Amino acid sequence: MQARCRCHPTLVPGKARAMRVNHTYGRGGALAYLAAYDVHHAKVFGRTEPRTGIDPFMALVAQVMSQEPYASAKRVFWIVDNGSSHRGKKDADRLAATFPNSVLVHTPVHASWLNQVEIFFSVVQRKVVSPNDFTGLSQVRDRLRAFEDRYDATAQPFQWKFTASDLDELLASSTSTPSTTRKKPPSDWQLDQPPKDFRSRPLSRRCAVRCRGGRSGRRVPGRW
Question: Could you identify which of 20, 89, 103, 146 might form a hypothetical disulfide with 11, taking C-beta atoms 3.0 to 4.6 angstroms apart as the criterion?
């Protein structure tokens, strides 16, 4: 997440006028925003770090697991994508060794939309980051914390309608579709010769070369 300081102040919306944001900006640095989302209570646990990685992710887990009811829960499922910070069985074993009641569950590849925290990130993108006009990273952190407090006080859980049975049906339909095989060309079909009805003509003006005579009598490329 970048902090962009606009070269001219942003004009708030007015009568018959939309918000105006200057195109040019100065770079005020970047930070990583990590968040965990409780799907049952719509509670957000967020933190900012200089960069992503295993240590920042484990710090987020410790931030959540040190609080109730997660610390004494029988099992706490962590739904994550396949990012490098928490990828594979090694990271799942590391999490279980640090917090025995934690279970790491990976979404399928290219299916991070199954994680409801992505919906929360889209809300942050619309209500916090846009327009990206910050004087520095400290202002970005303050605005993120203020939004988390407001969100925890007012938000309700997402009305998630995609269930496990829907996922099973989707996977079953994708595997039951018969695979299409490409037909083999005839044995007398020659790859090095064009069909009989083929006409040699340029496919587009980019492919054609036009020539004209010069003073010296030689042919030089011309212009369209």
Answer: 20
Query: In 3D, which of 103, 104, 129 has the Cα closest to residue 33?
Result: 129
Computed over every residue of the chain, the mean pLDDT equals 79
Indicate the SS3 state at residue 113.
Answer: helix
In a domain, 186, yes or no: no
C-alpha distances (whole Å) from 120 to each of 72, 126, 149 are 26, 10, 14
Structure-block tokens of residue 164: 């496990």
Instruction: Please give the radius of gyration of the chain, using alpha carbons only, rounded to the nearest integer.
Output: 29
Tens digit of each residue's pLDDT (9 = 90 or more) over 59-86: 999 999 999 999 999 999 999 998 888 8
CATH number, position 17: 3.30.420.10
Q: What is the number of domains present in the chain?
A: 1
User: Helix, strand, or coil here: 223?
Assistant: coil
Contact by Cβ (8 Å): 117, 155: no
